[in-house]
């Protein structure tokens, strides 16, 4: 659904529910592949670093031309773990391939 901000800039939000973020980080690109409308006049894509952007771009070549702004809210490479155990590198890998 297209919206208009207070400056007259048009934008659309495509979001996933704020739950099960581990699952979203692993499969979000696959889910969003179908939900993001075909690009026509858009110029910028804003996303979170939990999205595997490289995977989404592989699935959706029409998004390649957009300028991308990625919000990195936690560095997964050095994020402290609660218990000493093997780190799940998938989340850090998503961030590395997004840069």
TrEMBL record:
EC number(s) on file: 2.4.1.110
Domain of life of the source: Eukaryota
Keywords associated with the record: Glycosyltransferase, Transferase
Domain tRNA-queuosine alpha-mannosyltransferase N-terminal: 10-98
Record's catalysed reaction(s): queuosine(34) in tRNA(Asp) + GDP-alpha-D-mannose = O-4''-alpha-D-mannosylqueuosine(34) in tRNA(Asp) + GDP + H(+)
InterPro entries: GT-like_domain_containing_1, QTMAN_N
Molecular function (Gene Ontology), one example: tRNA-queuosine(34) beta-mannosyltransferase activity
Keyword presence, Iron: no
Entry's family note: Belongs to the glycosyltransferase group 1 family. Glycosyltransferase 4 subfamily.
Protein name: tRNA-queuosine alpha-mannosyltransferase
Organism lineage string: Eukaryota, Metazoa, Ecdysozoa, Arthropoda, Hexapoda
